[in-house]
Amino acid sequence: MVRVQNAEASDVAAAAVWAKVLAIAVAGEVLVAAEVALYLCFRLSRPFYLATAAVLAVTVLTVLLLLLQCTAGQAERMAARRALDDGEVLRLEYSFFRKVAGLPCKFSFEALAAATDDFQCVAGRGSSGTVFRGILDDGTQVAVKRIDRGAGAEHADREFKAEVSAIAGAQHVNLARLIGFCLGSPRFLVYEYMEHGSLDGWIFPCADDRHQRRCLPWARRYQVAVDVAKALAYLHHDCRAKVLHLDVKPENILLDDGFRGILSDFGLAKQAEKEQSRVLTTVRGTVGYLAPEWLLDAGITEKSDVYSYGMVLLEMVAGRRCLRKEEDGGWSYLPKIAVEMAREGRVMEVVDERLVTGCVDQAEEAAVRRAVHVALWCAQEKAGARPSMARVVDMLEGRGVGEVEAPPPSVTIMVDLLELDGNDTRGGGRQSGSAALSSMLTKDDSFALSYLSGR
Q1: What is the pTM (predicted TM-score) of this model?
Q2: What's the CA gap between 342 and 377, in Å, rounded?
Q3: Active site residue: 247, 265, 305, 352, which one?
Q4: Quick check: is 247 catalytic?
């Protein structure tokens, strides 16, 4: 298309040149005719006539050359201007198609500094970096994530590449959209900004008086659970390369303007081939959401995400952390409590007490029961017993599954490690969860010991 436009421009310029040449030729012929007429009418002397003719010829030739030179310069200027216009059009079209296609673009450090007011507005901090709120030139609100290098340059680069490769080509309504990036030191990722922040601020009680009323209603919690399940199902089953998120937790679930769930933060994500059964990695997710196979270094699969999702779903129902240290020094493990409540038919006692305000209708109680049962299926110790995320979506939406029954009781490794029942099977005495776990682990297993340190 650009070549055609340039050819048309050249034809127009050539036509203009020939038109001017023709005009000068006609003018020259008129002058020659005038000379001949003067000579015949006034019988001028031959020297005078030849001199006049020579002056006229030189004048005409000079004017012709000047016109040709000016025309050529004008044609060059027109071609250069058209080339600039074409380049600008191509740039705008390229930018438009990148935006429509959802492809991330490259930002300069200066552009991000201007958008974030020199990185003054901090929207949040995490283990991998700091997030700043900003506004681009076109008015788009963005969250600019700075990949901090506290754990080393190699770790920061690995996390940056993992996040870009995992999310750049993903197109799903419940996945955070990567708008762009900035290379350099440090590196930045630019995402859409979510006004309502992350899910943890809406399901867990907050000591901040300003956020005391930030309690997400049950219907919205259930919808967020479905949204996140769909996002994970897309990553596991519908991407060209299977994507394992590996850090599913409330802090990494954002809420958009309509309080729909948006899965974000792919710094620990791994890509795997469709036929690849397990992925070995030394990178650990967040304590409290790690599947047993991760603790045992048995390799991870998409079922590891399913386990983490089950933990998050239980937390959304109960409004508390799955792993919580109590005032007496012991540990409270929500999946064990939920299993006992489900077995005794007291599922509603698991629900966040802030949501239980008087009478609960049967439909809502059925939804709570379904959510708890789905969460317990996801949190099974054996990966093979956990459903796929596509199956989880079907169960939550009630498509072709009927009522979801509670899974059979099973003793998990976390119950054994934490000794939640307080019984010391090795010495006959009573131990706290910390002492029981410490006595079962070697001193070299620093990661397992850190499990008791909370988040």
Answers
A1: 0.71
A2: 12
A3: 247
A4: yes
Model confidence pLDDT, tens digit, residues 86-138: 555 555 554 555 555 567 788 999 999 999 999 999 988 876 778 999 999 88
Q: Does the structural domain 201-410 have CATH classification 2.160.10.10?
A: no
Q: Which two tokens stand for residue 282?
A: 């030394």
Cα–Cα distance measured from residue 252 to residue 244, given in angstroms and rounded to the nearest whole number: 14
**Taking 50 as the threshold, does the pLDDT of residue 190 lie above it?**
yes
Number of separate helices (H) and strands (E) present in the chain? 14, 12
H-helix or E-strand spanning residue 47: helix 46-101
414 or 387: whose pLDDT is higher?
Answer: 387
Contacts of residue 72, Cβ cutoff 8 Å, sequence gap at least 6: 17
Strands (E), 118-252: 122-125, 129-135, 141-147, 178-182, 187-192, 242-244
Give me the residue spans of the domains in the chain: 2-101, 106-192, 201-410
Under a CB-based contact definition with an 8 Å cutoff, are residues 162 and 267 in contact? yes
Beta bridge partners of 188: 146, 182
CA gap 302, 276 in Å, rounded: 10
Contact of 412 with 378, CB cutoff 8 Å = no
Nearest partner of 372 among 343, 406, 344, 397, judged by Cα: 406
Residue type, 448: A
What's the Rg (C-alpha) of the chain? 37
Asked if the domains 106-192 and 201-410 are classified in one and the same CATH topology, the answer is: no
Give, as one character, the DSSP assignment of residue 235. Answer: I
Tell me the pairing of strands 129-135 and 187-192: unpaired
The Cα 66–Cα 337 span in angstroms is 96
Task: Report the 10 Å Cβ neighbour count for 72.
Answer: 12
Fold of 106-192: Phosphorylase Kinase; domain 1 (3.30.200)
Please, what is the average pLDDT of the chain? 76
The CA distance from 131 to 188, in Å, is 9
Which of 309, 333, 315, 450 lies closest to 389, judged by CA? 309
Question: What pLDDT shows up at residue 96?
Answer: 52
Average pLDDT over residues 182-198: 89
